[in-house]
Design a protein that fits this description.
- It is a single chain.
- By secondary structure, the protein is of the alpha+beta class.
- It has one domain: Gcn5-related N-acetyltransferase (GNAT) (Aminopeptidase).
- Helix content is about 40%, strand content about 25%.
- Strands 1-2-3-4-5-7-6 form a seven-stranded mixed sheet, sandwiched between helices.
- The protein is globular and about 45 Å long.
């Protein structure tokens, strides 16, 4: 079951994000790794900034989360994580399919360039990488992230974004 997360789910969100983000350790640039990966203060900041989290429940327990945030004229997919014990069961895909039903706007997702598994996941779900130049512009326009993260990230876009910005899927 997929449901909108509430303030009561805050600690669960925090735990899932930090459990799942361990996959980045030793993969992303060392100067970008933090412990915990996402602090409670930053998670609160993201929620306060309009990230709405949706959770996938298995046996009454949230085991995967994905955020959505409308920014200007696009929708961003933010902070998509599945508890490591539940990976490989289609939870991320189910969450993404649900998130896609919540918007008609062009949709973007950013991830670490070194997180090839994440890139493959979004490509499997019909997102495509944008050019490096466009990635830099998009990250600076729609995200509030450090410059170092911009340098080491990629952006993938859905068909609506490509159609609205280039007239076709590149």
């Amino acid at each position: 079951m997929i449901r909108k997360c509430s303030d009561n789910d805050f600690e669960t969100l925090y735990a899932i994000i930090n459990d799942s983000a361990r996959a980045y350790k030793g993969v992303i640039p060392a100067d970008c790794w933090r412990e915990p990966y996402m602090s409670r203060a930053y998670l609160r900041h993201e929620i306060d900034a309009g990230v709405i989290f949706w959770g996938h429940e298995t046996d009454g327990e949230i085991v995967g989360v994905m955020g959505i945030q409308d920014v200007q004229d696009v929708t961003l997919i933010r902070h998509a994580y599945v508890n490591t014990a539940f990976r490989g069961r289609g939870i991320g895909g189910t969450l993404l399919a649900h998130i896609k039903t919540l918007t008609t706007r062009p949709t973007l997702v950013g991830t670490w360039a070194a997180a090839v598994w994440a890139i493959r996941f979004y490509e499997k779900h019909r997102f495509c990488l944008v050019s490096k130049e466009e990635k830099d512009r998009l990250l600076r326009t729609y995200w509030a992230i450090p410059e170092r993260q911009t340098e080491t990230s990629v952006v993938l876009a859905d068909r609506r974004w490509f159609e609205s910005h280039t007239g076709s899927l590149s």
